[in-house]
Design goal:
- The protein is α/β, with parallel strands linked by helices and 441 residues long.
- The protein folds into two domains: 178 residues, no CATH class; 208 residues, no CATH class.
- The protein has ten helices and 22 strands.
- The chain has a seven-stranded mixed β-sheet, with helices on both faces.
- The protein is elongated and about 80 Å long.
């Protein structure tokens, strides 16, 4: 099998990339194209309607800003460790202070509630959440289980006027069932709301639970706490950015925070493949290729990568730079492989499969296996919109409860965030990533 790695970022690409092993001068290229006939055009690498659509943009811009903030704090016991030590409580208070100050600065009246066990209970102040009883269920607070959908199921949603709502939670959804939360948020999106996430790793002292209620760690941790927000686009963007700034000024380290605005993330420009190398090195040539009865040149097909494999080459990598990612994550089904139809050549993809991926910032690497029986063709590695995670989602997702970092991660995070991201996508739009390759042996 031939292992292929595909790495991508951005839309722009220089068509005059030179390979250290073999590259053609422009006269040599011209001579080759003259000998083989005029260079043909490959099918478009990127297909679909540009994102976001005009309908989406119009709906987002029509949503008017709100005068109040509906703020819910998860009262489940999995968050108790935020009050478990002096340092933990200090950081937790700083985050709450950042939220309160941002609301005041934006002229928002705050309607705080405690959510849990399917209910939303009004509280007089967010400062009540610094009391351990708020999470353990003592004194004035009864024990509750996580039920995040309660906030978005509350009345107040009207046509074209989504409310501004924020839930502060660890997102350890009961039994990993995210469907209720996604279902509750969807009507808000339909009425013009966008979704944003401000994530913060805070000092924590106590029991760390998974979403099934099992304790997986006891003691100190850096637990992710999330501000999951919906509301009018411009207002929500400004508000979450302001919370991040004011929380940092109140004492929350900036390095511990991540901000994702899903309407922007899910509709970002399509990522394209950038260049091609081989393993072992210098075993391919990026030159015009004869595929079927046509000759195709990289210089007139800038959105494709070209690779002529030398004898004995066993793997390739399509990458953005000189150091392709090698520490790959399991594929997870994020990438779809499809053959690209060309005249007079078999473009079937039987035996071609993805074997892994990696995200570094906005760079994407996808590993693909191609059987040696495939002598040439063109393929597209496609990631649909809403299905491409941000790098920090992968890093904060708890995939192995026994791993050293498991206490500092969240169950089902990748599934939840990609599900919410898909709510921000219109059908028929261009993909998040479209990595195209033309190759021959």
């Amino acid at each position: 099998m031939v292992g292929l790695m595909v790495r991508a970022f951005g839309l722009n690409r220089s068509p005059f990339r030179r390979h250290p092993a073999a590259w053609l001068t422009l006269p040599a290229t011209a001579a080759l194209l003259t000998a083989c006939g005029r260079s043909a055009q490959l099918p478009d690498c990127v297909t679909g309607t540009p994102a976001p659509t005009a309908t989406q943009t119009q709906r987002w811009e029509a949503a008017s800003p709100r005068s109040s903030l509906e703020l819910a704090i998860d009262g489940s016991s999995s968050m108790l460790g935020l009050t478990g030590s002096a340092s933990a409580q200090s950081a937790w208070k700083a985050l709450l202070k950042g939220v309160s100050l941002s609301a005041a600065a934006n002229g928002l009246s705050v309607k705080p509630v405690r959510i849990g066990s399917g209910k939303s209970t009004p509280i007089t102040s967010t400062s009540l959440a610094t009391n351990p009883c708020f999470f353990s269920g003592c004194g004035a607070f009864r024990p509750v289980t996580s039920s995040l959908g309660s906030l978005w199921e509350q009345p107040g949603l009207s046509q074209g006027a989504p409310p501004l709502r924020v839930a502060i939670t660890d997102l350890e959804v009961n039994d990993g069932d995210i469907s209720k939360l996604v279902k509750a948020i969807k009507p808000h999106v339909t009425e013009g709301a966008v979704i944003g996430i401000l994530a913060v790793r805070l000092p924590f002292e106590g029991n760390v639970f998974n979403s099934q209620g099992t304790v997986i760690h006891k003691g100190e941790a850096e637990r992710p706490t999330y501000l999951l927000a919906t509301g009018p686009q411009a207002q929500l963007h400004s508000f979450l950015r302001d919370i991040k700034t004011k929380s940092a000024l109140a004492g929350v380290p900036t390095s511990s925070m991540q901000l994702t605005l899903l309407d922007e993330q899910a509709n970002a420009p399509t990522l394209l493949a950038k260049n091609v190398t081989s393993n072992p090195a210098d075993q391919i040539r990026e030159v015009p290729l004869r595929l079927g009865d046509q000759t195709y040149s990289p210089y007139s097909n800038a959105s494709y990568q070209f690779a002529r494999l030398e004898s004995g080459v066993e793997s390739l990598s399509l990458s953005t730079g000189t150091n392709p990612a090698t520490d790959l994550q399991p594929d997870l089904g994020l990438v779809n492989i499809g053959g690209i139809a060309l005249p007079a050549i078999d473009t079937g993809i039987k035996g071609i499969r993805t074997t892994g991926f990696q995200l570094r910032g906005t760079d994407l690497t996808v590993a693909i296996d191609i059987p040696k029986s495939k002598i040439g063709g063109a393929l597209r590695a496609n990631v649909p919109r809403g299905q491409l995670p941000e790098a920090w989602w992968v890093a904060w997702n708890r995939s192995d409860p026994t791993a050293k970092q498991a206490p500092n991660q969240t169950d089902g995070l990748l599934l939840l965030f990609t599900s919410l991201s898909k709510l921000m996508v219109e059908s028929g739009t261009t993909p998040a990533a479209s990595l195209c390759l033309a190759f021959s042996r």
